[in-house]
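Read as chain and fold; for instance:
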Amino acid sequence: MAISKSLWVTFFLVFSLSVGSVGVVMGQEETIKDLNDYTCKDVMRMSGGDRDMAIVGFHAFVLGKKGTTKFNVQKLGEATDRFVEYCLDNPKEKALSVMEKMTK
């Protein structure tokens, strides 16, 4: 399940556009999420597009943690495949930790 180059571009465009519009809409509660709370099962239960975006988000977080903006598309695709396979076999694992292992 390799992530296409266009999906990466879409993710970064959506992310860039949403950063400027982050905030609480009047009358709505603010919801705080933590990437460390997501298990492999949570990610695998997401629908196709949502799951792809979650995986891209984990990749982006790991890249940011490494302090880089550069990535090899083929290697990230391979890491995604390893992530999915591992998560299917280990649903209780923390998804972010698994992604960090798969991208070393």
Helices lie at 5-19, 40-45, 48-66, 73-89, 95-102. The chain has five helices and no strands. Residues 16-25 have pLDDT under 50 and may be disordered.
